[in-house]
Design a protein that fits this description.
alpha/beta; seven-stranded parallel sheet; 17 helices; 42% helix; globular; binds uridine-5'-diphosphate; glycosyltransferase; EC 2.4.1.-
C-alpha cells in the first residue's frame, strides 16, 4: 500500500502559455523529470492542458513509463475579462495586434488564479509531497511570487538555448548595438571565447529584449528581465556538449545555477511526438517519405506559427519546386493566403499527397520529430526556433537557416559558424511578428522592414544544403556526431541524465 505521503520530490511546471513551442518542451521536460523519479504537476490553461495531456498520455502509454507520476491541471484563462475571444489562450490564436496587450493582461490574471491553486496544492495533494520547486516559462513572471509563497526555489525555462542566452547577457553588459549608426550596421557579440562566435548581427536582428522600452514587447520584457534576475536558476533544453561551454559561461555571467537537461524531445519515441500524431496530415507526410530515397528530401518548416508574406512565399515556392531534391513543405496560415498564391500552390505542388509527387505541401500540423528522424530526410530548411534547431541536431540533419525573429538570428550563428552544420540562406531582416504588428497598432513604428529573399538566393542555399561535395559531407558528418552526443547525453551517466538526477536530488 502507498504510504500517506510520497518521498518523491514534487516539481510544479508552468509552461509559457503564449506559444505551443513552449508547451511542447515543458511537457517533455515533465516526462523526463518523471522518468527520473519525480512527481510532476503541469499547471496551464485548458487549451494548452489538452496538448500537454495528449503528450503525457502518449508517454505513459509506453510500458517503460507507465508508472510516471505526471498530473496536468487546467486553470481557466480569464481571456474574456481582458477582451479576448473564447479559447484564445495562445498568441497564435489572437485575432489582431490589439489583442497582444490583452493577452499579457489575461496572462497576469491567470497567474493569480494559478497562485491560489498552488497554495491549495500545498495543503491537500496527498499522497504527493507539497511542491518542492517551481519551473516556469519566462513570461510567467508571477511564478516567482508563487514559489516564494510556497517557500520553494523558482527556476526559469526560457525555451532558448544556452548560447543565445549567453549572447543576450553579453549584449546587456556591453551594448554594442547602441554604438551602431543604423539598425542594419553589423556588430559582433563581445567577450565570447573560441570556438564560440556571434559575428555580424544587426540591431534589427536582436531578440525582443532589446526593443525600445516603450514598445509593446519592451513593456512586457521589462518584467521578464526582473523575474530572470530574481529567479534561483535556469533549466535549459540543451546538452552540455552541444553549445561548447555556453551553459557554464551563462552560469558565470548570471551567478545562477544553469541546468542543461536536453534534448527533451528525445524523451519519447519519435512516432508519438505531435498533438495530432494520428492526423491525416501526419500519416500523409510519413507515407510520402516512405517512398523516397535515403537522405534525398528537404524538409521545409518554420515552426508552430511562422508565416511569410505572400510575395516571399512565392519566391520560396518557386525555389522549392525548381530544386533537384524532393521537398516536404509545411505551410502555416495557408487559408489566409491570397487567391492567386493558393492557385499557384494548387497548380505547382501536390497538396493531396500522391506518393510520386516531388513537392508535397502540408497545410496543417506536421509530425516534425518523426519527420526529422525519417531516413529519407537529408536537410531541413528552418527558421532556427530553438525547438526545431535542437530537434534537427538530435536527428543528425543539417540545416538551411532562415531566421524569422526573436533569438533565431543568434541560433543561426550557432548552427552555421560554431557547429558547422548549417548553410545560411542570407536573410538580413526579421519577418513581421506579433510584437512588430502590435507596435504598429500601438502607433509606434513597425520594426519589420519588407525584404523579399529572391528565388535564386534560396535555391543556392538549398543546393549547398543537399550538396554531396566535401563541404556538404563535412556538415553531414558533424551533424551525425552531434546526433550521437545528443543521445548519449540522456543515457545513464550522460551529462543531461546526471543533471536531471542532481536537480531532483537537490529537492530530496
Ligand atoms: N512543430 C511540429 N509540427 C509543426 C510545426 C511545429 O511538431 O507543424 C513543433 C516542432 O517540432 C517544435 C515546435 O513545434 O517542437 C516549434 O518550436 P520552435 O522553437 O522551433 O519554433 P516556434 O514555434 O517557437 O517558432
Amino acid at each position: 500500500m502507498e504510504s500517506a505521503t510520497s518521498t518523491k520530490p514534487h516539481l510544479v511546471l508552468f509552461p509559457w502559455t503564449g506559444t505551443i513551442s513552449h508547451v511542447i518542451p515543458m511537457t517533455d521536460l515533465a516526462c523526463l523529470l518523471a522518468s527520473h523519479g519525480a512527481d510532476v504537476t503541469i499547471v496551464t490553461t485548458p487549451v494548452n492542458a489538452a496538448i500537454a495531456q495528449g503528450r503525457v498520455d502518449r508517454f505513459t502509454a509506453e510500458p517503460a513509463h507507465a508508472a510516471a507520476g505526471i498530473t496536468v491541471t487546467a486553470i481557466p484563462f480569464p481571456g474574456a475579462d481582458a477582451g479576448l475571444p473564447e479559447g484564445c489562450e495562445r498568441l497564435d490564436l489572437i485575432r489582431s495586434p490589439d489583442d497582444v496587450p490583452r493577452f499579457f493582461a489575461a496572462n497576469k490574471a491567470h497567474g493569480e488564479a494559478v497562485a491560489r491553486h498552488c497554495l491549495r496544492l500545498r495543503l491537500r495533494d496527498a499522497p504527493r509531497r507539497p511542491p518542492s520547486c517551481v519551473i516556469s516559462g519566462m513570461c510567467q513572471t508571477w511564478a516567482l511570487g508563487v514559489a516564494r509563497d510556497l517557500g520553494v526555489p523558482c527556476y526559469v525555462f526560457h525555451g532558448f538555448g544556452a548560447f543565445a542566452m549567453l549572447c543576450i547577457e553579453r549584449l546587456y553588459e556591453h551594448r554594442p548595438h547602441e554604438a551602431a549608426a543604423s539598425p542594419d550596421e553589423c556588430f559582433d557579440v563581445p567577450d565570447l571565447p573560441p570556438p564560440l562566435v556571434c559575428r555580424g548581427l544587426t540591431s534589427r536582428q536582436l531578440p525582443p529584449h532589446f526593443m525600445p522600452p516603450a514598445s509593446v514587447g519592451g513593456k512586457a520584457l521589462q518584467g521578464m528581465r526582473e523575474f530572470d534576475r530574481a529567479a534561483d536558476g535556469v533549466v535549459v533544453n540543451t546538452f552540455e556538449e552541444l553549445e561548447r561551454g555556453s551553459a557554464a559561461l551563462l552560469a558565470e555571467a548570471t551567478g545562477k545555477k544553469v541546468v542543461a537537461v536536453g534534448s527533451v524531445a528525445l524523451c519519447r519515441s519519435p512516432g508519438l511526438d505531435t498533438p495530432q500524431s494520428m492526423s491525416d496530415d501526419a500519416r500523409r507526410c510519413m507515407a510520402w517519405l516512405d517512398g523516397k530515397e535515403p537522405r534525398s528530401v528537404v524538409y521545409v518548416s518554420f515552426g508552430s506559427a511562422g508565416r511569410m508574406p505572400p510575395a516571399q512565399l512565392m519566391q520560396l515556392g518557386m525555389a522549392l519546386v525548381s530544386c533537384a531534391s524532393p521537398v516536404l513543405w509545411i505551410i502555416k496560415g495557408a487559408d489566409s493566403l491570397p487567391g492567386d498564391v493558393k492557385e499557384w500552390l494548387r497548380d505547382n505542388t501536390d497538396g493531396d499527397g500522391v506518393a510520386s509527387s516531388k513537392c508535397l505541401v502540408v497545410r496543417g500540423w506536421a509530425p516534425q520529430v518523426a519527420i526529422l528522424a525519417h531516413p529519407a530526410v537529408g536537410g531541413f530548411m528552418t527558421h532556427c526556433g530553438w525547438g526545431s534547431t535542437l530537434e534537427a541536431v538530435a536527428a543528425g540533419v543539417p540545416m538551411a537557416t532562415w531566421p524569422f525573429f526573436a533569438e533565431q538570428f543568434i541560433n543561426e550563428r550557432l548552427v552555421v559558424d560554431v557547429l558547422g552544420i548549417g548553410v545560411s540562406v542570407g536573410v538580413t531582416k526579421p519577418t513581421e511578428n506579433v510584437f512588430t504588428a502590435a507596435n504598429a497598432a500601438d502607433g509606434g513604428e513597425a520594426e519589420a522592414v519588407a525584404e523579399v529573399v529572391g528565388m535564386e538566393q534560396v535555391k543556392k542555399a538549398l543546393e549547398a544544403l543537399m550538396d554531396h561535395g566535401p563541404e556538404g559531407e563535412e556538415r553531414r558528418k558533424k551533424a551525425q556526431e552531434l546526433k550521437l552526443k545528443a543521445k548519449g547525453a540522456l543515457e545513464e551517466g550522460g551529462s543531461s541524465y546526471n543533471n536531471l538526477e542532481n536537480l531532483i536530488q537537490s529537492f530530496a
